[in-house]
Amino acid sequence: MSEQRFNTTCTMDCPDTCALEITVRDGKISRIAGAENGHPNTNGFICTKVSRFARRVYHRDRVLHPLCRTGAKGDGKFERISWETAIAEIAERFSAIREKWGGEAILPYHYGGSNGLLGDELLDHYFFAKIGASRCVKTLCAAPTTAIAMEMYGKMPGVAFDDFPKASFILLWGVNPKVSHIHLMPYLRQARKNGAFIASVDPRNNFSDSEIDLHIPVLPGADLPLALGIIHFWQKNNLLDADFINKNAVNAQPLLDAAAEWSPEKAAKTAGISPEKLQLLAQTYAESTPALLRCG
């Protein structure tokens, strides 16, 4: 029995970009684990999805060859064809469509996959541009998120994990890092040890009392009233940095005007929490430097 170990990087579309150690036994993957060295975020542990990725690699339903449908749509009947046949048929259909309707009649409806060089706005982009195809802004979830983030923040990059322990206040709004950002958890624990005040806004309580200082169990859909109530509190108590807002924010006044109608009492009632919790969150956030917000 031969066994080898290889170091590589996770191929998932995930910002953690984990370092992996792959064990291959007799030519097949037998174990996928987080590399102990080489990546500070991985630090030896990975998510369950990737640790079981070998099941996907060797699953009987994995598509390894071009398949051509032989029955009606929905019947699930396919037969294997060669790469040459598949490429020739696609080329023939593309040519016929372009000749009759023009290249824009071809819509490349696809996603970014792992966001790697072969599948995300590089080779595919050049190919479809060459044939004059329509352009699909992808993905349907990421494109709106990017547009909103650019309008709100001016850029997409977030806060690096190793900056979390340096914060004195951390607000986790609508995010459960134990599930969706597992490699952030060690940094949150370190921040807690360093004395950071950690608060969570979420209908569910995902943390123990030893992990965070304040849980705001906002009612589903009441995030906006809560946010407006916080801004109202800041305005009323002169806690807003007017110079910063005037210099860096665009069209802030309509937001401030909207918040003026949401007193902490009104906002708290709508959000299903106590006014005292809202005020504690707003006061601590305003008085803490540096403060950090991570949204889900």
Describe it for me?
By secondary structure, the protein is of the alpha/beta class. Among the domains are: 55 residues, N-terminal domain of TfIIb (Single Sheet), CATH 2.20.25.90; 135 residues, Dimethylsulfoxide Reductase, domain 2, CATH 3.40.228. 37% of the residues lie in helices and 15% in strands. The strands form three sheets. Strands 8-7-6-9 form a four-stranded parallel β-sheet, with helices on both faces. Strands 1-2-3 form a three-stranded antiparallel β-sheet, with no helix packed on it. Strand 4 and strand 5 form a beta hairpin. The longest helix has 19 residues. The two termini are 46 Å apart. The mean pLDDT is 91.
Mean pLDDT, as a whole number?
A: 91
CATH topology of the domain at 161-295: Dimethylsulfoxide Reductase, domain 2
Question: What would you give as the CATH superfamily of the domain at 161-295?
Answer: Dimethylsulfoxide Reductase, domain 2
Number of helices: 12
Give the N-to-C terminal Cα separation.
46 Å
Q: Could you estimate the helical fraction of the residues in percent?
A: 25-40%
**Cross-sheet strand order for the largest sheet:** 8-7-6-9
Inertia-based shape: globular
Q: Work out the strand percent.
A: 15-25%
> Which class do the helix and strand fractions yield?
alpha/beta
